[in-house]
Amino acid sequence: MRHPSLNKLRAFDAAARHLNFRLAAEELNLTQGAVAQQVRALEDELGVQLFDRLPRGLALTGPAEGFHAQVRRGLDEIDRAIINISQQIPRITLSLPPSFAAQWLVPRLPGFLDKNPGLDLATLATERLATFKGDGVDLAIRIGTPPFPGLKSHFLAAIRLVAVASPVLTGNWKTIENIQDMPHLRILLDSHTSWKEVLGTELLPEDVTYLSFSHSSLAINAALEGQGIALVPELLVQRQLTNGALTCLWLQPDQGIGTRGYHLVYPENPVRFGEARQKVIDWICREFEKDWPA
Fold this sequence. Notes:
Layout: H1 6-18, H2 21-28, H3 32-46, E1 51-54, E2 57-60, H4 62-85, E3 91-96, H5 98-115, E4 120-125, E5 139-144, E6 152-158, E7 161-165, H6 167-170, E8 187-189, H7 194-199, E9 210-212, H8 216-224, E10 229-233, H9 238-242, E11 247-251, E12 261-266, H10 274-291
Parallel strand pairs: 3-4, 3-5, 8-9, 8-10
Antiparallel strand pairs: 1-2, 5-12, 6-12, 7-10, 7-11
Helix pairs in contact: 1-2, 1-3, 1-4, 2-3
Protein name: Gcv operon activator
Domain HTH lysR-type: 4-61
GO molecular function: DNA-binding transcription factor activity; sequence-specific DNA binding
């Protein structure tokens, strides 16, 4: 009997977990058409329809549900076998939002690597949530509110917004209590809706210009260049506020802080490198405890 290729089985597994060819393609770094073609070829080889193609996604057929559970177990075993036989330096992959990676993680990496020379920490800067199932991710930092089903989590910090600008732009302005009194300068927007959440849509100034960016980190860089006022999580600009590169114009009061925050999440039972993973967990938690004591 001829067995299906591993690529076809991985394409089927990803599609079965996401129930969407596009999301499966993103996970596997393939095109949507390539994933759909692999799945179709697998169905032809097996002589069984694995998915019902729906207007908005996919649905596993009855025979495919049990088949997927067995395929998933088999792929996990293959991954474990590859890890066990390799003699490489432990490599832990950390998934985290791009702006968090740029503003918080990167400046701290040299200290971590100096203390852990036998550990390779790989970062995956993405807004897409890690599944921990075939995506190669060991740990993830998420913005959200617990619980996170099926995952262990550590609360790292609440999201407190702060309006910041370059001292070159602000001059002698002092921190204001009411954000509605913000000086009418150019407002720097990012992919989040922080300004609208704080001010309300109807209160957004009409006599100012706006610059829009895809990530908070880009808005922060623009603020550093004196291009306007950015409203971002305090955590992301802590370093620039400390060294005076940015000035705080407004700090969100305690009663305005919501329940969302930064959390470190991961599966309880590691697929690989459990000791190395724990070192990264402990380091991240210590860094937050040092900068943001309870």
